[in-house]
């Protein structure tokens, strides 16, 4: 068979999403229904189709396509499946929210969602610096547009503007770093960069220079200190449904490109980038947790909480290689992957509860809006409590095992002080999560109006909350999947 | 059925009964709670008897059934050691427990806590059986704490009564003191032997006999002495030895069947059982044995004195229990462990009988416990009268009764001993014979003979109440002689006491039989036969048992010979004196009390143990707590650490928050600074 066709088969999920994205964009022009139900259904079907294709094209082996621009491996497949699931859940949660708001109630929402997903898929499967950049830009441009979709909202426009300018700056940094790496190694392909480093045929000064810029660009995407300034403003300014999108799935893609760039490409520079990431992680843990405490807006609070969670993810990557010894690397990286997956699960659920409490003309984004939730809906108060406990790292929720496995990896690397620091910071972090639980259960409700939400969302949110508890009891299933996929990919 | 299942049946049957009765205690009918627990204990008794028969046929068992935990080099198991000592204890516990279960049907018939009560006593039976059947110290400790828990629950059974709550808290706290010593002892065993299994520990004990340890500074202490004294402190708490005895008189706040089962017959003897079980350790430390001896002798004599002036029928029996526990401890102190166990067994029967008899009197008197309101009851309660007389004769060691054989053997054993303290102990146990007879027959004469005083009970009750108030004034925490006022119904004018129903009198008769005969039949095999061979270690340095065996010529000869001994005449003197004091010239005791008012006051305040504990330990602990609360908690922990760190976090958070200005150029600038800082760091440090 023509190798070009083989390439298309390997990349068939991306091809499908791209084709469907274009098709839906055109079809939506003819949709008269203001709720765009058919567009919604088609988008869902596309995501399900992509999931099926991903499952069927998964060989368990590392397969390169398009002359090494693209790679299909188990880590990519697993992350993509989580990505589709997250996108589907996000769409379900987002739908009632956008239906209540005429400005958002447009077909473009679904198309942009699909293109953002495609961007993330490309990032996850990127094997080449240019592919990485392509994916990042596809994701970013879609998200900028989504944030700005509520054109009449000053907050949304401001958030979109900030995000766009800072995102452009970060892309510039990343691109500049890539050019340096190219200058030092003479190639843009990640495996070839690795080979060039092994062959010791590169200029170390330029390499380090490039590395700093690459790490800075990645840090922006992950949203870690000091490249985090956009996070709180964008989280708060964007419509909640979009915040949910930004806060969830892109972390999976950012994790993937971090692994591909730093671990697959620049492993020989591990002592350097580990040191840089360590600084970023330590700062993120402190600033994220401390700044979350005085917040009164729950979206902003969750933004700072994201910063601290990403600090934890970095901790796992930081302790992979100890003094040139990569024995603990698999354990450490799979802990990070587990952390990202569980964080996405919790983050989507938390924003889901905010959307649940919102209604037309009312955003339940203040902490005060959660007061007395137990009296209004004991079940969803319990779901929110599980989410908050899990984020705080209370046993036995999934968040506990995520933190626990990271800490275990840190301790295994011999950095006890770092582990203690992380625990102390989580302890401070527990305060603002528990405050949510406190206001839900012990304060009198300010807002007495009944909760309006469709049944599908209620059921899905309940399942999401229960999954946080259930995988807390059986974390080993996800954990071993992460470890296995990483083992077969790196 | 194989033997292991039979062993398991013994503790599990009462546990199942307790669970069934306990979990259904709000819904089940009364007959169910009573029936299911009685069935459980009855099964347990039958199984125990089968085990005893099997053990007498020479089949012992030592082994683990279940590994509870493994930690490092230590393994903790659940296991059984079945030998003659265990089998005998199992039979005593289950038989007395069964009779108390039956008795309870009558005693608690009009109580709201009927079902709860049955659940508790079955749970107690399970715990006590786990304690005696254990083959290691950890399971012993489990049973030890479990019986303590049930005891605590039952002392506070009438939970709406302040005095009951005070009493169970007191029992709990005092037992903590004992348990602290006990667990230190177990810790020492684990530290130096590396295991808690009896067999391994006892086998290794001789090799550590001369081992010394440093406790304070460089002084050398014998490991065995320290371990044994620590273990014995545990026994002092559970078996109510001076000065940890203070909880037992107050435990009479619990219902009477419990006083019989837990606070007389079984639980309080756990300390005695434990020391006998650990005889291979105690034999290695004459110092510890002397300590045991002196504590026991003091308890035997001085607690007996207190029984002489009590007016509450249950408290008299309670002080008598203290005194008898002292006797058992004395026997342990002279390394005559079999005699201690022998007295434990006979005491279990006759003391349970006396308590249940007292309970029967209390039922007859409509829950009036003051003996000054009683009198001449023999006419109205014939079965209670006869059985109580049998129990009393057994208690005062009248020849041929069970108590005679065990108590006289103890006195004899002390006679043959020559360790430090044995002289004092001999005086104490001999003098106690008179004291025992005095308080036993004082109570007996006042309750069953003499004028029928309940007719002017109203008058006496008023005086009694007045007496209580006077008591209150002199003892700020005087909770002792009152508290049962709430149910101080007493007889209505014109009422007469009546004999109790058969569920009450049947256990009395069943207990009266062993109270009379078991001593006669058991003394030869238990003390001088091979019953305890290989189970209780013989102390080679103190041949008390061997010397006694030479003197022993059968139970009949022992009884006849006793007529020539001092204890017998002291006992006879006791009977005569009490008869004269309380039947012939009742004015004498009051006159004596007035004449020796100083001593009377000392005894009435129980040697000021309670006052001292309240002032020094309880008061001191509360003052210390208040100080720590004020200074440690409020100032250091809350003020500095909690509020201080919260403030610090708040301040830092406030500062961090101000970096988020909302200005785009500042955000971009921060990112550039970040890149610049990383570049600088990496180019100038590497």
Largest sheet data of chain B: 2 strands, antiparallel
Can you give the mean pLDDT of chain A? 91
How large is the count of helical segments of chain B? 27
Average residue-wise pLDDT of chain B: 87
**Widest beta sheet: strand line-up of chain A:** 1-2
Structure description:
Chain A is mainly α and 490 residues long. Chain A has helices at residues 3-10, 12-27, 37-57, 74-99, 107-124, 129-147, 154-185, 190-198, 204-222, 230-237, 240-247, 249-265, 270-292, 298-318, 329-357, 373-376, 378-392, 398-412, 416-442, 455-473, 476-489, and strands at 63-65, 70-72. Chain A has one domain (3-489). A two-stranded antiparallel ribbon of chain A has the order 1-2. The longest helix of chain A is centred in the middle third of the chain and has 32 residues, at 154-185. Chain A starts with a helix and ends with a helix. In chain A, 60% of the residues are buried. The mean pLDDT of chain A is 91. Chain B is mainly alpha-helical and 686 residues long. A two-stranded antiparallel ribbon of chain B has the order 1-2. In chain B, helix 3 runs parallel beside helix 15 and helix 3 (84-107) runs antiparallel to helix 20. The model of chain B is unreliable at 462-487 (pLDDT under 50). Chains A and B meet through helix 7, helix 9, helix 10 and helix 13 of A and helix 26 and helix 27 of B.
Give the key terms.
heterodimer; A: 490 residues; mainly alpha; two-stranded antiparallel ribbon; 2 strands; B: 686 residues; two-stranded antiparallel sheet; 4 strands
Question: Would you spell out the secondary-structure blueprint of this structure?
Answer:
The complex is a heterodimer of chains A (about 500) and B (about 675).
Chain A: H1 3-10, H2 12-27, H3 37-57, E1 63-65, E2 70-72, H4 74-99, H5 107-124, H6 129-147, H7 154-185, H8 190-198, H9 204-222, H10 230-237, H11 240-247, H12 249-265, H13 270-292, H14 298-318, H15 329-357, H16 373-376, H17 378-392, H18 398-412, H19 416-442, H20 455-473, H21 476-489
Antiparallel strand pairs in A: 1-2
Helix pairs in contact in A: 2-3, 2-5, 3-4, 3-5, 4-5, 4-11, 4-12, 4-15, 4-20, 4-21, 5-6, 5-12, 6-7, 7-9, 7-10, 8-12, 9-13, 10-11, 10-14, 11-15, 12-15, 13-14, 13-19, 14-15, 14-18, 15-17, 15-18, 15-20, 15-21, 17-19, 17-20, 18-19, 18-20
Chain B: H1 3-23, H2 30-56, E1 61-71, E2 74-82, H3 84-107, H4 114-133, H5 137-155, H6 162-193, H7 198-204, E3 212-214, E4 220-222, H8 223-238, H9 247-250, H10 256-265, H11 270-277, H12 279-282, H13 286-307, H14 313-333, H15 337-364, H16 382-395, H17 402-416, H18 422-448, H19 457-474, H20 502-528, H21 544-551, H22 555-561, H23 566-584, H24 587-595, H25 597-604, H26 609-659, H27 664-685
């Amino acid at each position: 068979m023509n190798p070009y066709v083989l390439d298309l088969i390997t990349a068939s999920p991306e091809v499908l999403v791209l084709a469907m994205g274009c098709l839906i964009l055109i079809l939506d022009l003819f949709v008269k229904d203001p709720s765009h139900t058919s567009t919604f259904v088609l988008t869902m079907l596309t995501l399900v189709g992509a999931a099926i294709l991903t499952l069927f094209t998964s060989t368990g082996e590392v397969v390169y396509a398009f002359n090494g621009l693209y790679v299909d491996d188990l880590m990519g497949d697993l992350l993509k499946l989580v990505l589709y699931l997250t996108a589907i859940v996000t769409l379900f949660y987002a739908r009632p929210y956008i239906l209540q708001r005429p400005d958002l109630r447009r077909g473009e929402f679904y198309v942009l969602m699909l293109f953002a997903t495609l961007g993330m898929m490309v990032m996850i499967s990127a094997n080449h610096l240019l592919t990485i950049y392509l994916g990042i830009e596809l994701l970013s441009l879609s998200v900028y547009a989504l944030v700005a979709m509520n054109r009449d909202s000053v907050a949304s426009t401001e958030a979109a503007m900030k995000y766009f300018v800072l995102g452009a700056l970060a892309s510039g940094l990343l691109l500049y770093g890539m050019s340096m790496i190219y200058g030092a190694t003479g190639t843009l392909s990640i495996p070839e960069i690795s080979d060039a480093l092994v062959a010791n045929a590169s200029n170390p000064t330029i390499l380090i220079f490039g590395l700093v810029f690459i790490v800075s660009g990645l840090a922006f995407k992950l949203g870690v200190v000091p490249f985090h300034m956009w996070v709180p403003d964008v989280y708060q300014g964007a419509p909640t449904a979009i915040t949910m999108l930004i806060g969830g799935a892109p972390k999976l893609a950012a994790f993937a490109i971090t692994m591909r760039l730093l671990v697959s490409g620049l492993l020989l520079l591990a002592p350097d980038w580990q040191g840089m990431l360590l600084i970023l992680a330590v700062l993120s843990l402190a600033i994220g947790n401390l700044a979350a405490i005085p917040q009164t807006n729950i979206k902003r609070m969750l933004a700072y909480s994201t910063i601290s969670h990403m600090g934890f993810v970095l901790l796992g990557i930081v302790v992979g290689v100890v003094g040139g010894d990569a024995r603990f690397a698999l354990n450490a990286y799979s802990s990070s992957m587990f952390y990202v997956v569980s964080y996405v699960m919790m983050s989507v659920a938390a924003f889901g509860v905010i959307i649940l409490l919102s209604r037309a003309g009312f955003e339940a984004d203040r902490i005060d809006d959660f007061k007395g939730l137990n009296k209004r809906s004991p079940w969803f108060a319990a779901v929110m409590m599980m989410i908050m406990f899990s984020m705080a790292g209370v046993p036995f929720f999934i968040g506990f095992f995520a933190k626990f496995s990271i800490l275990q990896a840190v301790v295994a690397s011999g950095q006890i002080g770092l582990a203690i620091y992380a625990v102390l910071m989580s302890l401070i972090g527990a305060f603002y999560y528990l405050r949510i639980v406190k206001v839900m259960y012990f304060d009198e409700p300010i807002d007495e109006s009944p909760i309006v939400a469709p049944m599908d969302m209620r059921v899905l949110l309940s399942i999401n909350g229960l999954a946080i508890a259930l995988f807390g009891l059986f974390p080993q299933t996800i954990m071993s999947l992460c470890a296995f996929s990483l083992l077969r990919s790196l | 059925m194989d033997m292991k299942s039979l062993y398991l049946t013994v503790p599990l049957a009462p546990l199942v009964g307790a669970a069934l009765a306990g979990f259904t205690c709000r819904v089940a009918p009364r007959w169910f709670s009573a029936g299911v627990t009685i069935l459980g204990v009855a099964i347990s008794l039958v199984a125990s008897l089968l085990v005893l028969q099997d053990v007498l046929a020479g089949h012992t068992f030592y082994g683990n059934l279940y590994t509870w935990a493994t930690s490092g080099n230590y393994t903790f198991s659940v296991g059984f050691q079945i030998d003659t000592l265990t089998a005998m204890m199992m039979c005593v516990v289950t038989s007395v427990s069964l009779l108390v279960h039956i008795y309870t049907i009558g005693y608690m018939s009009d109580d709201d806590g009927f079902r709860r009560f049955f659940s508790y006593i079955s749970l107690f039976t399970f715990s006590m059986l786990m304690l005696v059947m254990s083959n290691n110290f950890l399971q012993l400790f489990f049973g030890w704490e479990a019986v303590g828990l049930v005891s605590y629950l039952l002392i506070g059974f009438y939970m709406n009564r302040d005095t009951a709550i005070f009493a169970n808290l007191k029992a709990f706290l005092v037992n903590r003191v004992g348990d602290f010593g006990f667990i230190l002892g177990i810790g020492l065993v684990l530290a130096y032997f590396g295991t808690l299994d009896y067999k391994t520990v006892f086998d290794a004990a001789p090799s550590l006999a001369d081992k010394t340890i440093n406790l304070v500074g460089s002084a050398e202490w014998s490991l065995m002495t320290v371990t044994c004294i620590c273990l014995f402190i545990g026994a002092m708490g559970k078996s109510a030895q001076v000065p940890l005895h203070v909880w037992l008189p107050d435990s009479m706040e619990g219902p009477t069947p419990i006083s019989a089962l837990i606070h007389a017959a079984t639980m309080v003897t756990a300390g005695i059982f434990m020391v006998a079980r650990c005889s291979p350790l105690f034999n290695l430390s004459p110092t510890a044995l002397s300590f045991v001896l002196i504590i026991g002798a003091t308890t035997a004599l001085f607690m007996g004195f207190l029984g002489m002036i009590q007016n509450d029928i249950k408290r008299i029996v309670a002080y008598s229990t203290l005194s008898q526990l002292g006797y058992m401890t004395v026997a342990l102190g002279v390394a005559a462990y079999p005699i201690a166990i022998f007295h434990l067994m006979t005491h279990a029967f006759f003391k349970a009988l006396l308590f249940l008899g007292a309970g029967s009197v209390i039922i007859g008197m409509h829950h009036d416990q003051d003996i000054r309101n009683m009198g001449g009851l023999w006419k109205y309660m014939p079965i209670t009268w006869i059985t109580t007389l049998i129990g009393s004769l057994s208690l005062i060691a009248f020849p041929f009764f069970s108590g005679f054989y065990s108590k006289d053997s103890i006195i004899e054993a002390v006679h043959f001993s020559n360790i430090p303290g044995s002289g004092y102990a001999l005086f104490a146990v001999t003098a106690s014979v008179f004291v025992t007879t005095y308080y036993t027959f004082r109570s007996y004469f006042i309750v069953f003979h003499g004028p029928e005083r309940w007719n002017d009970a109203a008058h006496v009750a008023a005086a009694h109440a007045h007496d209580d108030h006077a008591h209150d004034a002199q003892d700020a925490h005087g909770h002792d002689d009152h508290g049962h006022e709430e149910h101080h119904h007493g007889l209505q004018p014109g009422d007469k006491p009546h004999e109790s129903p058969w569920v009450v009198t049947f256990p009395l008769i069943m207990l009266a039989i062993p109270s009379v005969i078991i001593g006669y039949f058991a003394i030869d095999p238990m003390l001088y036969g091979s019953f305890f061979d290989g189970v209780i270690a013989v102390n080679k340095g103190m041949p008390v048992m061997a010397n006694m065996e030479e003197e022993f010529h059968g139970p009949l000869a022992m009884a006849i010979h006793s007529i020539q001994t001092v204890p017998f005449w002291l006992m006879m003197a006791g009977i005569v004196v009490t008869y004269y004091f309380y039947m012939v010239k009742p004015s004498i005791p009051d006159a004596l009390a007035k004449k020796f008012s100083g001593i009377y006051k000392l005894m009435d305040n129980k040697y000021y143990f309670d006052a001292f504990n309240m002032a020094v330990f309880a008061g001191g602990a509360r003052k210390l707590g208040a100080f720590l609360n004020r200074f440690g908690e409020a100032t250091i922990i809350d003020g500095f650490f909690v509020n201080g760190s919260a403030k610090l976090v708040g301040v830092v958070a406030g500062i961090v928050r101000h970096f988020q200005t909302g200005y785009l150029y500042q955000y971009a600038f921060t990112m550039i600074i970040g890149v610049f800082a990383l570049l600088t760091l990496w180019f100038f440090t590497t």
